[in-house]
Amino acid sequence: MATITINGISFDPIKQSIELAAAGLYAANASESNYILIQTKAPLTKDQKAELAAKHVAVLEYVPDQTYMCKYQPSDLEAIRSLPFVEWANTYMKGFKIGPSLESGSDPDSRSLLSFSLIPEKSSGSESKIVDLVFHQDVDPKTMGHQVALAAGMDPMNLHYGTHKIRLEVETGERLANLAAIDEVRHIEPVVAKKLHHL
Predict the structure, then answer these.
(1) What CATH number is attached to the domain comprising 180?
(2) C-beta of residue 165 within 8 angstroms of C-beta of residue 141
(3) Alpha helices in the chain (DSSP H)
(4) Which of the residues 41, 62, 85, 139 could staple to 184 if both were Cys, CB 3.0 to 4.6 A apart?
């Protein structure tokens, strides 16, 4: 089955199913998140999308490969997993949220989801970085300011709002993990400073 890659982080849900379960990443239900990934056996047809909608699934975006990011507020994942056209379904995992370049000691280009199955809540060393907190497509960033500021331990006045994102300076480690724990967050990416080139 196809590999799922989000935010520079990859894994194969079928080939790595045993490791996924052992790491505690295969959810029994969707009670802890309103966002799920659905990998299908083929591209979704109009009728299949309608069937998902009838089960209160809202498809937000396509992610490679053969996978859909969806909003799903019910908790029953088996109702989705049992559909004949669904290969795999699970809650959207926190391990996808923090980009490789924000993790100390990781490959800046890519990493395996299972190698970072747990986001550390505390870090012996941390540094401040400017990041973009990117939200799922159904989320208005302006409604998230208070929660983001609380998680980052900062004044809400220091948040900068953009389309589907909030830019802020945050300490890596515990504060970054707090931000990743916000359900509405899709991913966190570093802001690369623009360099001036002399002619």
Answers:
(1) 3.30.70
(2) yes
(3) 17-22, 46-54, 78-81, 145-152, 174-180
(4) 139
Describe the strand order of the beta sheet including 160-162 as a list of residue ranges: 160-162, 165-171, 128-135, 185-190
Handedness of CA 139, 141, 144, 148 (dihedral sign): positive
pLDDT by residue (tens digit) across 4-50? 999 888 889 989 999 888 888 899 999 999 999 999 999 999 999 99
Residue 28 Cα distances to 67, 118, 157, angstroms: 19, 17, 39
Q: How many domains does the chain have?
A: 2
- Residue 173 tokens, joined: 């480690």
Q: For residue 106, is it within any domain? A: no
Structure tokens at 137: 């497509």
Could you tell me the pTM of the whole model?
Answer: 0.88
What one-letter code names the amino acid at 55? K
Q: What φ, ψ does residue 98 adopt, rounded to 5°?
A: -95, 115
